[in-house]
Amino acid sequence: MKDPVLALNFAVLQRNRLHVFLSGRLHKLAGSIQKDWCSQKYTFWGGIVLVLAILVTVCSFLNYPHPITTVDTASYFVSVRQLQATGNPVNSWRLPVYPLFIVLLYAVAGQGNLMAVSIVQGALFVLTALEFYILTALILKRGWLAFLISLLVGTNLIFLSYSKPIMTEGLSLWLLTTLVLCAVSFAKTLRVRMLWLLSICMLLLCFTRPEWLYFPILLYAYLFFLTIPRKDRRRLLPPILVSVVAIYTLLGSYIAVNAFHNGFIGLSSVENMNLLGKVLQYNMQNEAPAQYQYISRILDPFVLNGNRSPYQILHAAPEIRQNYSYFAIAIIVHHPGEFLLKSIPYTFSSLTYYFPAPQNPVPGLFYQPLTWLLSIHRVLYAGNVLFLPCALVWILLLCWRRTRSVGSVQNMGLVLFITLYELFITTLGGYFESDYTRFHTVFNPLVILTIWGLLFMSLLSVPLVVPFLGRCFSPRP
Predict the structure, then answer these.
(1) Distance CA 78, CA 94 (A)
(2) Could you tell me which of 98, 222, 119 has the C-alpha nearest to residue 169?
């Protein structure tokens, strides 16, 4: 039996060591916060963004404390039941990350607890607002400026209203924001661990929404040739190659299993449905090659009656199910110029077209303040018309020799690359105008950063530019 006096002394010694350790940590944390407060006050402004995002989210849930489902929700439930029954994540209709997300929450909160799923997606929206603030502060290097721009995201009822329903938008919004934050952090630090985090986010996005299939190779090429200095390329090339090979090996394996078990070669058959929808949207269904003219004749009565929904058409005409994807692909391949020209107007109009989300808002405890907040963001949403002009200015700054080496310009080039990819891919994939607001929710924070970052930085540059112009145009003695 041990001596109780020695045991007591040992316990006191360990307590003192823990006290010294915690005191040192707390002193270091307090010092960093004090330093931050005396400089840009990043912690202070970030704390306000976090509090406001939590406040808006809580009020929204208290106003309508029920889970929100849409027409797409049922198909995710099919994949959830498949996962729980067989453990097989491969499905020809829905990708596995979001169903797995629901299964994990069911395991914690109880089977069928959709409210828990919606609440966690609301929490992800709050986390997105905080990460967006960190991203903006990293790029613009001003805490108060990052706060002002982040207010447009953290209090945005449009984004929150599309994040709460049982759909992929809430999860995808957080994943994309995290991916961009990791990409910018990697570009600034060139640390391999940030590259691995970036790869994980990219892999999860690819298995959440099919439009990200082509993105990894494009992003890594951008980082390698335009972001990484020449002296660091040899060191970072192996982990980049490993990431690319790992991501596309998993994607290829998923496609192979899908082809073997479900008879579909691809990530999701939704992609084929989108192709048919685009052909019908552009009224190109009569431009098919001769072997597919019979499908054109079947589709014509539906189009004449104003029905351009591929889901309803395939339900009413199951005889075209086997070949409708080849029909749409053949039309696009034979008329690529016409297809792209007809897509250009939607690239502009989709930025400002607004369609209200389900239950946004409904009469409830906080109906009046939420309606007021929504009206403000509806007006600001129309400001997305400035995105493409602002994107052009950022591109010019990135190409201009005097500004291309500026850190904020380089980082905004990366943000702009990701935003333009998602804008073009959703424009080419979406075929109902009512879907554009939902699709754009995932990357609209980056649109806001592109527009308002340029506007605020331009205002801050006026005191520097005006004296310079004055000296240039003042009469010489």
Answers:
(1) 9
(2) 98
164 in the Ramachandran plot: left (φ > 0), alpha (ψ -120 to 50) or beta?
alpha
* Helix segments in 263-366, DSSP class H: 270-281, 293-304, 310-316, 324-334, 336-352
pTM here is: 0.88
pLDDT tens-digit readout, 329-362: 999 999 999 999 999 999 999 999 999 887 777 7
CA distance 64 to 366: 9
Radius of gyration of the chain (CA): 26
SS3 per-residue string spanning 212-249: HCCHHHHHHHHHHHHHCCHHHHHHHHHHHHHHHHHHHH
Closest CA to 378 of 153, 99, 192, 158: 158
Of the candidates 166, 128, 196, the one whose C-alpha atom is nearest the C-alpha of residue 449 is: 128
Give 250-274 pLDDT, tens digit per residue. 999 999 998 888 878 888 888 888 9
**Cβ proximity of 381 and 158 under 8 Å:** yes
Q: Which helix (H) or strand (E) holds 81?
A: helix 73-86
Residue 442 near residue 172 (C-beta atoms within 8 A)? yes
Alpha-helix residue ranges (DSSP H) falling in 400-443: 407-429, 433-441
- Residue 183 has φ and ψ, to the nearest 5°, of -65, -45
Integer CA distances (angstroms), 113 to 71, 121, 164, 360, 396, in order:
18, 13, 14, 22, 50
